[in-house]
């Protein structure tokens, strides 16, 4: 009988030996906010968009969610919702404490909140409505908030408020990276705020050939800057505002 019991146990012994526990290490994503490849400056700096219109920026925030690393294995961060905001150093960061020690070649995340969580504002942490990113008059979140002023017709200063939300404006971003096995991971993600309004490098390129859409500040109606079809042009642009380098 002992012999038979041992034979029955052998497959389970082999199975447990194959379940290798992966070593985990911390990972830091440092976000640098830029306009025209220079650190973003609030209030005191006047900028132009691809159409040559002048603006100043007073507030900039967005949600990054559903972060994933891919390579030899795939790692998905649980409860992956981060509110990133400009501060005095023009940088922000995310620290993930336990990332499996692997080689990774791709970073994926979303700008916005996925439909399942976007339908409820009964949340805490970065999703707490008190952070100023939930609609007061409707369910759901502002995926990206950019506020400031622009010169209407080049002479009269007007308010500029882009509060982009709605499930149609949820965008997934995938960036190539090179992370070899290490005791800690560091990445710098550059956020090119100017590309929200269109890539200046595409001035002179036909509209059909452009990757981005040139945003006209003269079209600052609520429909254009929150949920409407025009706001999807802004969302398509902010999906292209990121670049990444090993920190």
What does the model show?
The chain has helices at 2-18, 115-118, 222-225, 231-238, and strands at residues 24-35, 38-39, 47-48, 54-71, 74-76, 81-85, 91-100, 104-111, 142-152, 156-165, 171-179, 185-192, 242-246. It has 247 residues and is mainly beta. It is globular and about 65 Å long. It starts with a helix and ends with a strand.
Which features would summarize this protein structure in a list?
247 residues, mainly beta, eight-stranded antiparallel beta sheet, five-stranded mixed beta sheet, 13 strands, globular
Which structural class do the helices and strands define?
A: mainly beta
Q: Total number of helical segments?
A: 4
Q: What is the ordering of alpha helices and beta strands?
A: HEEEEEEEEHEEEEHHE
Proportion in helices = 10-25%
The whole-angstrom Rg is 22 Å
Instruction: Compute the number of strand runs.
Output: 13
The low-confidence runs, each spanning 5 or more residues with pLDDT under 50, are none
Taken as a percent bin, the fraction of beta residues is: 35-45%
Distance between the termini: 61 Å
Largest sheet, strands/sense/barrel: 8 strands, antiparallel
Pfam family, one: MbnP
Organism: Algivirga pacifica
InterPro entries: MbnP-like_dom (IPR046863)
Protein name: Copper-binding protein MbnP-like domain-containing protein
